[in-house]
What does this fold into?
Amino acid sequence: MKYLTILFIISFNFSLLTGQTFQDLSFGTDTTLEVMTWNIERFPKNSDVTINYVKEIIDALNIDIIGLQEINSKIAFSNLLFELDNYEGYIGTGTNSGLAFVYNPEVISVNSIYEIYTSTEYWRPFPRPPVVLDINYFDERIIIINNHLKCCGDEVLDTTDVDDEETRRYHAINLLKQYTDMHFSDAKTIVIGDLNDNLRDEAAHNVFRHYLQDTSNYYFTDYHVELESPSGWSYPTWPSHLDHILISDELFDAFRLAESTLQVFQIEDLMIGGWKTYDENISDHRPVAAKFYFNIPGSSSEQIKADLSLNYFPNPFSNQINISVSAENHYSKIEIFDINAQRVFSSDITATDKSLVWDANQLPDGFYFIKVTTNQYSSLKLLPVLKIRK
It folds into this structure.
């Protein structure tokens, strides 16, 4: 009887630390597609304790597709899949891959899963070959590419040094862009993962600059996170925001709808012991997830899309940029921020106004972000523009 009591106490205490703790954690819905990236640090970091925590978190979040990094044990990953409700999975075939997908087969159908850039010539930019998940979500074909790029560095991109960490990431990002441009030019494409670098580095040392400059075709859904407090970044101990979700232009409309969003989950806030407990038992990275709503004809979101749009040209620009807002019968506000999250411009646009010209002649070159809000819609978007000298 004594042993049964001890066993009950252990079981009860663990339930307090897992299932009951995460009962308010949620994200997925029946009307959206959710995609999450999560570096789960040397999984399982604390054996079965980690597996139980991760199971409870994934079940609570109810996310359709999860790209994981740093899976150290394929046996533990199989055990996780066995414990999960309504999920299947895949793990990379390489010895040091550590990349995996977990997905809900009741929501998506898998067309294929495969690795790219696997030959030895790509080992420097890709110590872990990217894993491509080709799916159908209802009638929508979507490509998700999971990555874990080289870590560390000194924040200086030295392209003359092939072993420079930033250079390795820079080459990896360029190869990813080359691949998405060539193979998925018309496909709804999502690039996710622990990309191990910040989006807001100055242009000369920004490993993402070719994706960032191609604003007509690509957008980092989490860019605004780096404009906010470091306490909300995905790698808080540095702090840095290293885990990203990039989308192609075929998904711009879906992500602009009010039901769509991006979130970094501060799960440690729901745990007894806070960050210490999370770090010791789960990971040193927070999960990052995006939610996409695909239009259903006649829905309220379709009306929001029609009522609100933002256009700007040219991009890149030298001194002035034209900004126009279509927000039918609604007041709008335009704000522009620099790369350090400092507001450099603000203007109100009434229902009768349609456009404005922003003169940035006195400001330095670099990335700026246009934020539009209205009195009707709570959603907002940050859209990157690049100022360069002619």
Observations:
- Helices lie at 2-17, 47-61, 74-83, 165-183, 209-213, 252-256, 274-281, 300-307.
- The chain has two domains: 32-293, 308-385.
